[in-house]
Amino acid sequence: MGQNQRRAFWWRLMSYLDTGDFEAREMEMDMEDDPYGGPTPKEPPSPAEIKALREEASKNGVRDGKSGMYDEWSLSTGSRPPYLATLEARRLEAMAHERVRQMRDMERLERRVAVTESDLKKHQERARRTTDEIDRLRTQEEDIQRVLSGEQVTSDGVPEGAGHAGRRWAEPTRTLRRRVVGGVARFAMLALLVAVELPIQYATFLYLGENPVMTWAFVIGTAGAMLIAPHLAGGWTKRMTIEGWRSPLLPSMLIALAGWGTGVWLLAVLRTAVLFVPTVDSITLQQVASTVDALGLGRVPVTLLFTGLMTISGVVAFTFGYLGENPYATKLADLQRERRKLERSLASLEGRRKRDEYTLSLTGKRITRHEERWQAYIDATSTPYRVCEALYLNAVADTMRNPAFTESASQWLRHQEEKPKQPA
């Protein structure tokens, strides 16, 4: 695999790994399929081809030297004999093909420059928008920090002395470690309460006579709802306490608490009814009073007992929700996290912008080196034909053994070397 193939393979792979728009990469990927050749000159003629061309020139020189078509004046007028004219035509044909490939390569280079300029403008525009977004987030952060410090921010961003809705609840932003520890503690406590509720609810719903799947569905759903509802209500209450009670969260909070309170009462009544169900003696097959009846407890005390226990669990869940982070501090943390993300994106855009600017700064040098490279290759393409001309005339001179013709051939070759080269 050549250098161009490896480069195209790598860019083809990068197109799947990088989602950004980079048109120059897609354009480079097609360079191997270009019918006019790739962006670099093709390989020079093989030694076998050069050797065959030189042998052909020598044979033709020997043949023409014996034919008597030359004398000492044949080259004095600067004319070109038939075989030398054929060699010159073949040389010009090879050079013409290379000049076509050179023009195609220059066109590709110009397209690369144009696409790089387009990429540079895109990166500059994206960097500008990202910078504006970062400035906007910083302004919001400053406003929230003033609120957390107990100051009120007016519409023009100037702090006032009057208290803000969150002034009485101002607190510093919690660190990431503190936030993680608090979240783990709340999750652990809620998991512990759910673990306590599950066997109690299972013993209650077991009397419904459903299959095990339905029974566990009732148990898990009820235990989760009886803890999640007060926990959400506590978080909403904290938020409305800070931001104000005229909030669309107020109906949701009241509905959650009402549903939770109703659930507590109904579950306590159901659990009491289950406990007072008489059992059947396995020997006498007679009904035996339940343990609660033996203790002499009535239904009302038992119902109140279970109502109090489930209320305690709900109050704990409500308290954990209420002790959540200040919503302003949470918003500040979200803004800071978003700002850091945009700053990383801006750093990447700045790197791409500098890369494109550096690439464009090398445009003049790349064009100069492009001209030098192709001119050197075209000269290398022309040289074998020049060598064949010298070999042909040398074979003619060796065959004729005429010093005058030898001198004339030398002057003719020197004159060809002194001719100005055609620009590539």
List keywords for this structure.
mainly alpha, two-stranded antiparallel sheet
Q: Determine the number of helices (DSSP H or I, runs of at least 4 residues).
A: 12
Structural class: mainly alpha
- What is the number of beta strands? 4
Envelope shape: elongated
What is the ordering of alpha helices and beta strands? HHHHEEHHHEEHHHHH
Strand order of the largest sheet: 1-2
List segments where confidence is low: pLDDT < 50 over at least 5 consecutive residues.
Answer: 28-39, 155-163
Please explain how this structure is put together:
There is one protein chain. The strands form two sheets. The protein has a two-stranded antiparallel sheet with strand order 1-2. It is built from twelve helices and four strands; from the N terminus they run ααααββαααββααααα. A hairpin with a 5-residue loop joins strand 1 and strand 2. The protein is mostly helical.
